[in-house]
User: Fold this.
Amino acid sequence: MSILHETLINQAEALRAKRTALLKEHGDTVLGSVTIEQVLGGMRGVPALVCDTSSVSADEGLRIRDIPILELTDITPEETFWLLVTGTRATAEQLAELRASFAKYYQIPQYVVDTLKAMPKDAHPMAMLSVGLLAMERESEFRAAYDKGAGKDALWQSLVNDAVRLIASMPGIAAAIYRIRFNKGDVIAPLEGDHDLSNNFAHMLGVSDDPAWKELVRLYLVLHSDHEGGNVSAMTSYVVSSALSDPYYSVSAAMSGLAGPLHGLANQECLRFIMDVREQFNGVPTDEQLTEYTWSRLNNGQVVPGYGHAVLRVTDPRFTAFYDFGVKHGLQDDNVQIVHKLFKLVPGILKEHGKAKNPWPNVDAGSGALLYNYGMTEFDFYTVMFGVSRAIGLCSQMVVNRMMASPIVRPKSMTLAELSGKA
Ligand code: HAX
Assistant:
């Protein structure tokens, strides 16, 4: 049994006991009411999910296990996973074992690479990511344990093994997609030994040897890892895994949600927007030019990518972390300058426009310009980078929910006629 299993074993019992006690003593406590606007409006603000790994408040943004994300910008993906799934900061011994467990799975099965190579040359990298994960489903220990009749309360243990393998395989799948889809040459083998996940990912991508690039990959993997339970990708994996589908199915489904332009694909759209601005003005526009450009976009019924959020009402702290990274490394290229100029101008424009509830930048507003700066210029790939990171949070949420023995999700839908009858 791994140190991670040992750490979680007591927590699993405590979590189940807490859930049972809450149900028994407070099961009929009313949390709020649901309006027709919420039913018709994407369930905004309906308190209907449990997520212990992280929380997002309107006025501060992401906290992982109650620690503000801006206090975690120096940690590794391994430390992030440990913190998300256990709620504690890992010791050196715990981290060493986790890193070694990940390293065992950096090499992905050849059949996954062959499957990716067999896909159409113009397949979207996110479609390839979902397919790559589904191809690996046969490796699931969770499904094997279920098939062998493992009891409901024990299933989380094989889920932990799947989580470790899936998280460790994501960089290999993603890097293979990058190299195959963008004709970058052979797929690069992982580093020998138990290098940490982000170093290994940076190596397998083969984009740059710059230490700052490695630092950016690490930061990227930490910042996108989790964003509570109500966003499209997290909720998708929550629902799918509640049917006891294994993590390969659940994360693959979540990646299909992340591929949407209003969710993870926004980072690709953001850079496209920035490049359009650069092309239109042959470089960095003046404030007046950028203001006019943004207004014409809004008047055309288009959104400003990278701005607005369903929950946040302040600048996303993850945007701040990327912004600070650019400043720390003295990045000054046109794209970075346009990101800075948009940050100065867009909130005022969106406020005046009066539609968006949140005029401030979200995580996607600046990340693409940084990736581009270090030589990852294929922005169709950016959401895959996001997906590698998000798998860490999705798997953590899945493990915690399974430890709690959460039941299948089954809310009630209503017809429009039934809703009208309530009006
Ligand atoms: N530009 C222009 N209009 C915007 C806007 C923006 N950036 N953000 C919101 N609005 C508009 C909405 O389209 C909506 O218009 P309608 O009433 O005509 O439908 C109105 O303002 C109210 O929307 P909201 O309540 O403020 O925002 P939502 O919760 O409905 O949507 C979104 C949140 C993030 C989808 C939205 O702000 C948006 O489309 N932003 C641009 C795309 C983007 O950056 N997405 C990434 C989000 C972060 C993320 O999940 N990453 O994975």
